[in-house]
Amino acid sequence: MADPVLLAKAAASVLSNEKNRKAAGWALAAIFFPAIVLTALICSIGAGGAEHNNAAVSACFYGSSFSEEVPAAFRGHVAEMQSAFSLLDSAVRSVNASAEGGGLDPIRVKAVFYALCFGEEAPSRREADRFAGCFYAAEERVRTVKVEQADGTITTEEETYTVNIPLPLERAYANLAALMGREITEDDRSNADHIYALVSGPVGGGSYDGAYLRGDDPSVELDVSAFTDPGTKNAADLAAYAVHAWESGWGYVWGTYGNVLTESLLEYKVQQYPDGVGNYEDFIRDNWLGGRTTDCVGLIKGYGWLDPESMAICYGTNGMPDVGANQMYRSSPVSGPISTMPDTPGLAVWMDGHIGVYIGGGEVVEASSTRKGVIRTKLAGRGWTHWLEVPYIHYE
Q: 136, 93 in Cβ contact below 8 A?
């Protein structure tokens, strides 16, 4: 068996030369992946094997501040992976714009990319599009549309359009093997599954060691009695809404935004997100069915969509668009690094792929994960990288 230290040195030598890096292509990462990860993480973290991978995943998906003891090569790998994730998110959004009834799972795509390509330089936009393209197939369909004629009459006609359909993971791996010119091994798949579970499953929203609190007054009733101005969408009431969700013990189900989780809604979400929800159906059914549930950005969107007169959460209302955590951050008119955050309840706090609501006093309410639900955590030490004013929310 080849010496992993020698392999790592060889990889570093090749990767340090820009011309060689580009010539080597993605296959280089596949060849040297185990040695690079093992050596870099032993040098930088000094913990057991599983913790190595978990710490690297956390750094890539959620961001991290590194001490000077962490090798520059490892920090560079993390930066390259984060750049790749940004391109993959864009590619997945483009695919899902032409999907029906559920699109690609961006976390799954990034988890597979991480497992196959950690240590590689970030792909070009075209390469990212090709990678995401392995996860879906385009299908032509026919639909009937209404057409207004020149004389004002309405007729119908058939038109052909294209729908992007997510592929089973086995087919996606076959496509990736052809794209990358290498076998996708069982170890690759197991690593990808482990990464995916860390990000969207039992842990979700980032792994961390800090204490968290669950609310102790379970309820499905919505309460706006603590709102300062129910007729507007403002920062103080967003914080009050988040606190109420925490106090009421809301659960976490991907793709929900504060409504009661009925049997029919759960079945729909299982079909829509077979990995992010379907893999945890038993736990969700035992713990969250019949209560209110949300995901991280759904906690904020639910407040935006709340009608305080009818006490109904109505999708897409009040000018609040249906966006993900990253898109909400990027569309914010006012934001900054977490070190510059003002002490303003109702600001959102963000890390890549996850978002929460600052409630003041150095605390945050966040819809954390399937197993944790809506929790209250400390702002410090959680891994938040930026703060933002939520679009469509009024801040003094």
A: no
The residue among 145, 172, 165 whose CA lies nearest residue 156 is: 145
DSSP, res 226 = T
Are the CB atoms for 298 and 367 separated by under 8 Å? yes
What DSSP letter does each residue of 57-92 carry, written as one string? HHHHHH--PPPTTS-HHHHHHHHHHHHHHHHHHHHH
What is the β-pairing status of strands 292-294 and 251-252?
Answer: parallel
For 212-388, CATH gives: 3.90.1720
Predicted TM-score (pTM) of the model is 0.53
List, for residues 6-40, the tens digit of each pLDDT value.
333 343 333 333 333 333 333 333 333 333 333 43
Pairing of strands 363-369, 354-360: antiparallel
| Helix residue spans in 134-280 (DSSP H) | 169-180, 186-200, 235-247, 263-272
Domain ranges of the chain: 4-134+169-200, 212-388
Helix (H) or strand (E) holding 106: helix 106-117
Q: Per-residue pLDDT for 58 more than 60?
A: yes
Nearest Cα residue to 180 out of 24, 4, 60: 24
- What is the rounded CA–CA span in Å between residue 156 and residue 293? 41
- Measured distance CA(303)–CA(298) in Å, rounded: 8
pLDDT band of 64, cuts 50, 70, 90: low
Rounded-to-integer distance, Cα 259 and Cα 159, Å: 36
List the beta strands (DSSP E) in the chain: 136-148, 154-166, 212-214, 251-252, 257-260, 292-294, 306-307, 312-313, 335-337, 348-351, 354-360, 363-369, 373-378, 386-388
Neighbour tally for 367: CB within 10 Å: 35
pLDDT tens digits for 158-208? 888 888 888 888 899 999 999 999 999 999 988 888 787 666 543 333 333
